[in-house]
Amino acid sequence: MLESSQDSTHIHNQPGAYWCADCHRFTFECAHLVEPLGTPIVQLNNWQYSAVTWSRNVLQVTMNTGERFQFMKVPRGLAIELVRAPAEELLKGYRFERVRGRILPLTG
User: Which one of 5, 36, 39, 107 has the fewest beta carbons within 10 angstroms of its own beta carbon?
Assistant: First the structure.
């Protein structure tokens, strides 16, 4: 059994680390990350999504955990529908990429 001090040194126990399916390992940064969109952000009041932004058929979703994902080939109408009534089912079937950097969730 590992001691708790040893446990915290493993990368998978670090809050900024994530599993990269392309690298097949936990990492803080990798070449598979995409840059965030520079378009205006719409804040959401949803248990799962905190914000969205859309540009040229790319929808960027910010989760309440601070993680961001970009969904590709999302039509503008679907992005508007997600803002009006956020639902996970709307994004099923769309290819996505993880966005570089994490936004720290607001503590209230």
Answer: 107
